[in-house]
Design goal:
Radius of gyration: 12 Å
Strand content: 25-35%
Number of domains: 1
Number of strands: 7
Structural class: alpha+beta
Number of helices: 3
Largest sheet: 5 strands, mixed
Helix content: 10-25%
Shape: globular
CATH topology: Ubiquitin-like (UB roll)
Oligomer: single chain
CATH superfamily: Beta-grasp domain
Distance between the termini: 42 Å
CATH class: Alpha Beta
CATH architecture: Roll
């Protein structure tokens, strides 16, 4: 299994009390399941009925996962997943 760097931003960083960590996993889905197990309650922020909340932004190497294979993206060693809350501004 490849080792993947996970970066948390804003309220996700506050919830996990860390900015980043490394986890081994084969897909984005597997990594998300692992971090939800590591941080109890995170699943309620990220998912509803097993689906990613629409306000959660997940990027794989700077690209939104929704623009490719979503949570089924296969991972390679050294890749990075970034988890962001919604971004707004004016």
């Amino acid at each position: 299994m490849p080792k993947i760097r996970i970066r948390f931003f804003a309220n996700f960083r506050e919830f996990t009390k860390t900015g980043e960590l490394e986890i081994e996993g084969d897909t984005v889905r597997e990594i998300l399941e692992m971090i939800c197990n590591k941080f109890p309650g995170l699943d309620k922020i990220l998912f509803t009925n097993g689906k990613l909340q629409p306000y959660v932004n997940i990027f794989l190497n700077g690209e939104n996962i929704l623009e490719s294979n979503g949570m089924d993206n296969l991972l390679q060693p050294g890749e990075e997943i970034a988890i962001f809350p919604p971004v707004s501004g004016g």
